[in-house]
Design a protein that fits this description.
about 110 residues; two-stranded parallel ribbon; 4 strands
Length: about 110
């Protein structure tokens, strides 16, 4: 995949990929929340009257996706940074998540 994307297709390789880690339970609660009007309209045109797409409905898929991203982060720690966005079962504030992201990437700018 690496060769296909970055060598053959010459897709620009990101300096770092940020994984905002929550739980599937919290992710499920966040689906459809916090969108601006434009994104909300695009989401509605995509889903129609449905609240979730087929991936969002599938809890096993959500768990598998989380496991896959965490495995990638473990295999490539310089390229993937995992930001834990949950403490004691609750989603952290945007400000706290922001600080964690900044702490993880600030060395990329020096």
């Amino acid at each position: 995949l690496y060769h296909l994307e970055y060598k053959l297709f010459k897709i620009p390789k990101p300096n770092c990929t940020i994984i905002l880690k929550t739980s599937p339970k919290i992710s499920e609660k966040l689906i459809g929340k916090g969108y601006d009007k434009d994104k909300e309209e695009k989401r509605k045109s995509y889903l129609g009257e449905k609240k979730k797409d087929i991936h969002e409905k599938d809890k096993d898929h959500l768990l598998d996706a989380l496991d896959s991203y965490l495995e990638a982060a473990e295999m490539f720690p310089e390229e993937f940074k995992v930001i834990d966005c949950v403490e004691n079962g609750k989603l952290l504030s945007k400000e706290k998540i922001h600080h964690r992201v900044w702490d993880a990437v600030k060395n990329l700018f020096s």
